[in-house]
Amino acid sequence: MTNLKSHSFSLFLLPVRRNRIIILQKMMKKIEQLVAEKLLKIKAVKLQPANPFTWASGWKSPIYCDNRKTLSYPSIRNFIKLELAHVISKQYEEANAIAGVATAAIAQGALVADMLCLPFVYVRSAPKDHGLENLIEGELKPGCKVVVIEDLISTGGSSLKAVEAIRNFGCEVIGMVAVFSHGFPIAEQAFQKANVPLTTLSNYNAVIEVALKTNYIDESEIEVLQEWRKDPANWDPLA
After folding, report:
1. Residue 145 CA from chain centroid, whole number
2. CA pair distance 49, 237, nearest whole angstrom
3. 2-41 and 74-91 helices, crossing angle to 10°
4. Contact 238, 117 (CB under 8 A)
5. pLDDT means over runs of 10, the chain (239 residues)
6. Is 1 helix (H, G, I), strand (E, B) or coil?
7. The 145-153 sheet, strands edge to edge
8. Which pLDDT does position 2 carry in this prediction?
9. pLDDT at 236
10. Which of 103, 113, 159, 180 could connect to 98 by a Cys-Cys bridge, CB 3.0–4.6 Å?
11. 237: which DSSP letter?
12. Hey, how many other C-beta atoms are within 10 angstroms of the C-beta on 132?
């Protein structure tokens, strides 16, 4: 009789869990759209399919992202801080330290750590060439469970170098939370291989959807924008 009741209760919980997942997915979708809207509004993200940007890597790109601009707009800065902190408090309750990836994620990482009352450090791209030659700046204790804050995920290379540095220090990286991702397959594969859960507040698809809705771009440009992301390293805007 007890087993039957337990089974019935489990069956009752199934639709409850499904509904909770659906609600969370809808909430995340809404956040993705809101963040995309705010980034486009202050030109932290720009789309120029007809006049591509050239990245430092030499790649041609129809999108340029500079999330550091959000720091100059108090309401948007605060919104992003709250959403990053919300993700961490919900998904990584066991976190006892926050690390920002230098340099773009230092400010936002410090704001989030302050809000969550957690220690903060930041990870350099290379050790200092003077003094103690630190790679990690701040006080990080071995054994800490760390959430890494990142500004932008492209290929994931620099972000995962920061993860490696923290792991080499004897800490556990339990996840990474970023403001924006281009959603490249190469990045998704790299994060899976490194066993690093990644959550982003917004992404390339959300930006395109919002840009289309607000007439920032038109339907004729969608194909170009989608083609670029399939193979950004070899994309030819003139092809």
Report:
1. 18
2. 8
3. 160
4. no
5. 48 55 71 97 96 90 96 98 96 97 96 98 80 80 97 95 96 98 94 97 97 95 92 84
6. coil
7. 136-137, 120-123, 97-101, 145-153, 172-181, 198-203
8. 42
9. 84
10. 113
11. T
12. 8
